[in-house]
Amino acid sequence: MHETLDEHKIASLIHLLEDEDEETYRLIYPQIMEMGGSMMPYILDAQDRSIDNLLNARLKELYQQLNLQSTLDEFRDWKLHNSRNLYQGLSVLSKYQYPRLELRKISEIINKIRQDLWLEVNDNLTALEKVRIINHLFFDVYKFRGDTKEYYAPENSFINDVLIRKKGNPLNLSAIYSIIAQSVNIPIYGVNLPRNFMLVYVEKLYSQPLNKIQKTDVLFYINPFNRGEIHSQNDILNYLKKIHLEPKEEYYLPCSNLITLQRSVNNLIKIYSNKGEENTAENYRKILAVLME
Length: 293
Known about the structure:
The chain is an alpha+beta fold. The chain is 59% helix and 8% strand. It has twelve helices and six strands. Helix 4 (53-81) runs antiparallel to helix 5 (86-97) and helix 5 (86-97) packs parallel to helix 11 (257-274).
């Protein structure tokens, strides 16, 4: 937690950023970085008012580094204290990509879908009946779908974009589906299946990190990228044979939220590397390193 910032000191430091002397900039840079994420609104305000190219370049660099530093700190905190909350982890990732993002608007969309689902399900329904209701709501009412045309678009990897655009990759569609299901006590979790992240419906709700769940607890699998198609364990086995992979327990059982975030960030590293945006990919590697610690 950073101390309350001295606004007079902030104004002085930002004014000094206009100095063309690189030595002055090198002296100021660590002072601003030491102030942490609390400096970000002041940097943005200065950017909005500045017409000086040198100042704008320095402000942009500082803002990007402060944003990265703040995100790394948030992920360390999430890992230690709140990794049971998948939505929060995915929100930290979106907030890094879109620093001005208003998360309240995103949570309102989640809450609206949750409320609609809560009105439709009850404990007398079977697991399959509950999934049919979720599928109808998710794919027919709210029109979510897999993005097959632009599968590797970065937007498919951020929960805010997927909620607004109503399309995404397998991981983020699955994540939103499971977050909504679990919010009404339906035990659906992510499965770290190679090439196609999916979901599994188990006997009851469990707490993270889900290491007590056994194969015998599995009822069936769900593929949100294909409109919630239902699969058996044999289907998963046949799929693994088809892509020439040995069956491992991790391909059948729920994965932790931490693994879900690791895979999501790894996807972004590959996407930006393939786009030739190596600086962006490198920053996501730093985020992945924190998640892998």
